[in-house]
Phthiocerol synthesis polyketide synthase type I PpsC
Amino acid sequence: MTASAPAPILVPMATPTDSRTDSPPALPATMRAATYARYGTPDVIELRDLPLPTVGARDVLVRTRATVVGMGDWRMLTADPAVAVRLYQGVFTIRRPVLGYGLSGVVERVGSAVTRFEVGDAVFGEAPQGGGFAEFTAVPETHLAAKPERVTHEQAAATPVAGITALQGLRDVGRLASGRTGPAPRVLVIGAGGAVGSAAVAIAKILGAHVTGLDGAAKHEFVLAHGADAVLDRRTDDFTTSCERWDVILDMIGSAPVAACRRALTPNGRYVAVSGKLRRTAWLSLFGGPRMAGLIAKPNAADLELLSGWLADGRLDPVVARTYPLEETADALRQVGAGGNLGAIVIGTVSGT
Ligand SMILES: NC(=O)c1ccc[n+]([C@@H]2O[C@H](COP(=O)([O-])OP(=O)(O)OC[C@H]3O[C@@H](n4cnc5c(N)ncnc54)[C@H](OP(=O)(O)O)[C@@H]3O)[C@@H](O)[C@H]2O)c1
């Protein structure tokens, strides 16, 4: 529920006076959820029964079918970086004990002010405060879009966090626009075989760029399959010392020196840091100027609709590496923490579309 949401109001779509006979069955009072009560390794994850989430006037209650497990979950679990995570999530006591942001499922209830969705709609989106590692999740309607039939709930769940970050990094901060004339802009995606990186490769191609993906050799085939024109090996190729120059660098790692990243840009090129140490990110926001910037992605309805369209027409086709049941959320988090995955790690309650 958003901080400014009015008092919770539950509005079932069918009431006893409705002429419709297909009223949804009553919802249970409790749900299963993977929770954590202290920072640590995935060993602290505990499956518990919790009350169903409160649904505000502008919220939708989603019966969660699939939720992606991402680096954001890993960072919230392990308090990395410690200061930022503890400021947000609590110094010692965890404020939001259920993680899980990118999700897909079916609408079960809508708040009184919801206009875009009805009970029974298949939707995907991003729960801004988490809550997806559970059988039900309350999500503001602005953070949801219709799930295309073409993709599974697992693929849809893998899309919003990675897709919104990649889209806003490339288009809004990187100023990569579609429909230009002239030669294709050259984009370098650092960490191209990861969740955000593989979405960025696909989206940069949709936006008409020539795309080079930088990652380990074991991920090169995966990166090329997402549409990259070329790949660089993170262990043997140094993009900061090659003579190639980039119109946009989207950096999911943030370990290369800032000055070297600047030198690797064309005269009007832009460097976008999606990740990196706090000190580096702070330096960029204070002294980087418009061409060297950090990104904090913000989900919104228009961008989710855009991603929904690309999922529907197949231009986005996320790969799911493995789906775990809710009971094995700790194992799923371990797999994300270990890295090296070729595709998304997902928690699924039910498989299929
Ligand atoms: N700013 C925002 O709004 C925002 C939003 C979402 C995510 N993020 C952050 O963005 C970062 C990336 O997220 P993600 O979900 O894409 O992570 P991910 O799935 O783990 O992807 C990272 C990729 O980079 C590769 N890699 C590791 N070190 C590298 C290096 N030195 N050079 C090139 N590639 C390297 C990894 O390979 P291996 O798997 O083999 O290690 C992996 O393929 C995370 O720090 C996350 O917290 C920020």
